């Protein structure tokens, strides 16, 4: 069946399931011939990654053995980064608490020079309320630069890819600001921040996606993070509103429509297979990625297990669609 852009999807490569081993150091799973060929055809400017890596259910197609979550969290990144299609990962734990330079340096030491990290900014920068009270660090650019962004840059060095600022839903109500007020405040933040790496701003409230917002991003050297989430606009509509090709193109494919995160986690755990495939979203994300890559741009796509059931398998299928139509 043709996808919504009229493209005929190619058969998806099937990962090789490893024998269920236990104990010993976690290594990369065996790579099927199809995935090895696909990786060789994939643009080096395409960075596919998952939201974290600590999932035992990925044994057999990312990891070579089953292991407890704590062990996968501690040892899995080195094995994950050896998969030729997984050239990025999102450090999501940084959203919940600020990390130290040593944390980032430890992660960077486990991957090669071609790998790129995306990091979610600490939520204390992007949530106007913390524990029911006004948050004085909301969009504090000086604090963000020195306490949050600098440790990432110093620890990861050239492997620091994109810094993602995920704003909480219902932001206008929680911050008591209009869309125009938010655009002004965001623009001032970005001017002071002066980030040497791309900053991707993720907004879930569609009323904030105004011309003033996009102008503030462009003036501040930032990009809109195109996100797949039930509360937001379609990815195609988000890019249409941007009005130009963002560089880099950053896409986060987060959550299956019709679910809350906890519901999706319960249904999809242990994240070892695709449960609810979303071919329409896959086609749309692939179309945007192909356009950017064909124009010489860089593309980051970060997938969550809650998108279809297993983030790596989502990315493997996405890579097949993208690679099948590149010039």
Protein described:
With 327 residues, the chain is of the alpha/beta class. Helix content is 38%, strand content 14%. The protein has a 9-stranded parallel beta sheet. The chain is globular.
Total number of distinct structural domains:
1
CATH homolog superfamily: Protein of unknown function UPF0759
Spatially, the strands of the biggest sheet line up as 8-7-6-3-2-1-11-10-9
Number of distinct beta strands = 11
CATH fold category name: TIM Barrel
Major β-sheet profile: 9 strands, parallel
Distance between the termini: 22 Å
Beta-strand content: 5-15%
Binned, the helix content reads 25-40%
CATH class: Alpha Beta
Secondary-structure element pattern, one letter each: HEHEHEEEHEHHEHEEHEHHEHH
* H/I helix tally: 12
Rg from Cα: 19 Å
SS-based structural class?
A: alpha/beta
Uncertain segments are: 1-19
Shape by Cα distribution? globular
Mean pLDDT: 92
CATH architecture assignment: Alpha-Beta Barrel
Question: Any key phrases for this structure?
Answer:
single chain; 11 strands; TIM Barrel; 9-stranded parallel beta sheet; alpha/beta; 327 residues; disordered N terminus; two-stranded antiparallel sheet
